[in-house]
Amino acid sequence: MMVDDGTSQVVGEQPVVPELAPEVEVAREGFSLWDRLRSPRTLISFGLALAIVIFALRGLNIDLGQTWQYMRQANPWLLLAGLGVFYLTFPLRAVRWRMLLRNAGVPIDAGRNSWASLPALIEYIYLSWFANCIVPAKLGDAYRAYLLKHNGKVSFSTSIGTIFAERLLDMLGLFGMLVVSAWFTFGAHMPEGTQIVFGFGALLVVAILSGLAGMRWLSPLVRRLMPRRLHDFYGRFEHAALSSFSPAILPRLVVLTAGVWLLEGFRLFFVIEALGPAIGTLSLSAIIFVALASSLLTALPITPAGLGVVEGTITVVLTFFGVEKNLGIAVTFLDRLINFWSIVAGGFIVYLFSKRR
To answer: Around Cβ 252, how many Cβ atoms within 10 Å?
Structure first.
């Protein structure tokens, strides 16, 4: 396992610059969100998302007039509370990522590294979420790694390794809390439609854990199968992914991850509360289950941030709890206003004025 990062790192005020081929290629090409947004793949993914939304609305026979009436009656203060709760997840994610970076050997504490300050890390994460909302295939993760390389001279592969570790934590935490909330909500008798959600979640967990186990136990074989020019790149990625975790910080990582997903659940709680007595009474465990099920589907790389897929899923899952379909789609639209469209609007502003983009 490689300890030497092999890239530009900042130690104090003196940069050391032994760049390697993959990083040179990334730095030369850059990462233009505008180019990605105009690409045929992105346009096709938005077209697919629109088609899914139209199909869901027609398939469920949604009355958009009634849905709009429900949305107009929502309590704006409770919606703002949901928005605030959602945005509290970004500082928690930044603190967690900082811990992973430090454990991976990134010199974030050397001198006064403004590129590694908590506000800077929050900005990188927010811009990456903005990228995930406007381009498909989770390219926002690569964009975040490029931002760290561009601003902190940190190896692109090292950054991607820590983001992979972060995704592993998110998926394990999300799926674990999804199972617990489902148990409290349904007991041993799960509705048929939930099997798809659990199957997809289990598949993602197995895939990520298999990748992690493969890096730890099959590293020599993996290196033999890949081109030699990628060995250094993979070595730094592997080192960062595996060394991000340690027994000393694991409890704090678990607490931060649980906090993130609980806040995601409370975001939907405030949205549902904003609609008042019309929606009836849903238990907190049921609300958390619905929120986590929708978050799980954002991992699908088909459309930007699961656009279209998430909307249909939340509406259908809410019907399991007896929520009328027009009211369910109102909940969905208001929730996506917070966790999708607010990022599109806010992220665009941050992107325009950011000095770190």
So the answer is: 12
Q: Is there a domain that residue 303 lies in?
A: yes
Compute the C-alpha angle 254/256/262, nearest 5°. 100
pTM of the model: 0.82
- Which of helix, strand or coil describes residue 9? strand
- 143: tokens are 């964009």
| pLDDT at residue 296, rounded to an integer | 80
Print the domain residue range for 165.
17-353
Handedness of CA 155, 156, 158, 159 (dihedral sign): positive
Task: Return the CA Rg of the chain.
Answer: 21
What DSSP line would sit under 181-198, residue for residue? HHHHHHTT---TTHHHHH
Instruction: Give me the mean pLDDT over the 121-133 stretch.
Output: 91
Residue 210 has pLDDT above 60, yes or no: yes
Q: Is residue 277 part of a domain?
A: yes
Above 80 in pLDDT, residue 126? yes
For residue 332, give Cα distances in angstroms to 28, 139, 249, 274.
41, 25, 36, 12
Is 6 inside a domain boundary?
A: no
Both ends of the chain: CA-CA distance in Å? 32
**How many domains in the chain?**
1
4 in any annotated domain? no
Give per-residue pLDDT as tens, 137-164. 678 888 898 888 888 878 888 888 899 8
